[in-house]
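Quick illustration, no need to memorize.
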Amino acid sequence: MTINDERKQNVLFSDPYYQSGLTMVVRDNETAIKNFKDLKGKKVAVQIGTTSAEEVKKIEGVEIKELNTPADCFMELKAGGVDAVVNDRPVNDYYITKNSAQGVKALEEKLTAEDYGIAIGKDNADLQQKINDALKKLKENGEYDKIFAKWFGEKK
């Protein structure tokens, strides 16, 4: 769950374990798009009703194509109907990793950034500490990196 001040009023959070945010996927041979500023005058696929749709609408000069699912967005990119796909980083990374997606690449820049944490009941500081200890151990012994690579590819 995204860690933010509003949610902190209702729950405790573990230490952050993943930095998400909106990232972009383009075709492998794309050279004109290197960052979000380069989207002006381009066609971009986003999933209907998502933060990516809202954020891309703020970029001047972008033609937006709102589709039902992330898979629809990626198919449109591969077919050449759009120049880029903008979505949450884990969605983009998962798609590329799990589908052995060829012909596309994720760009490093994030349009937004947010930390994910595990939400815990406000009255359970003991469990919060145990989760934080476990996360620390997983990171120290390398297991976190193995899990991350399995689902999202190698850490960048």
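The chain has a mean pLDDT of 93.
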